[in-house]
Amino acid sequence: MTRHEAREQAFLVLFDKSFHPDQTLEEVISVAAEDEMITLDKFANSVVSFACENEEKIDTIIEQNLRGWKMSRISRVSLSVLRLAVAELLIGEAPEGVIANEAVELCKLYSGKEDASFVNGVLGEYIRGRKSE
User: What is the pLDDT of residues 95-129, one digit of tens each?
Assistant: First the structure.
């Protein structure tokens, strides 16, 4: 499985989890695996686990980088993509530009250009802020 495919699988789990907040991550993964919707490799599993374990911190980062938006207005696709990308940025195993580009591509695939542009803007704000720290 390529890193791109792993990110897509991780996104699908986070997206599915957004519909089932009361289920554990293991339950969401188990149901999705039974339905043959996903196959998580080691990378995807680690990013998803990190994102879920640090959801509050990640959501705070997202909220701090919104301009004229509230968290409640963000689509589930965009929020899931942002959570995935911020988690990966915090882990720090891939270049920031690659992570941002992959997030934009996932958004284009699952939502559209408007959401992709929004995600790009939020991630750009966060990445620029990290560089000035």
Answer: 999 999 999 999 999 998 889 999 999 999 999 98
CA 24 – CA 16 distance, rounded (Å): 11
CB 48, CB 40: distance < 8 Å: yes
CA distances from 23 to 13, 14, 105, 119 (A): 12, 12, 28, 26
In the chain, what's the furthest Cα-to-Cα distance? 45
Q: Computed over its alpha carbons, how large is the radius of gyration of the chain? A: 14
All domains of the chain in start order, with CATH: 3-131 (1.10.940.10)
Please, are residues 15 and 52 in contact by the beta-carbon 8 Å criterion? no
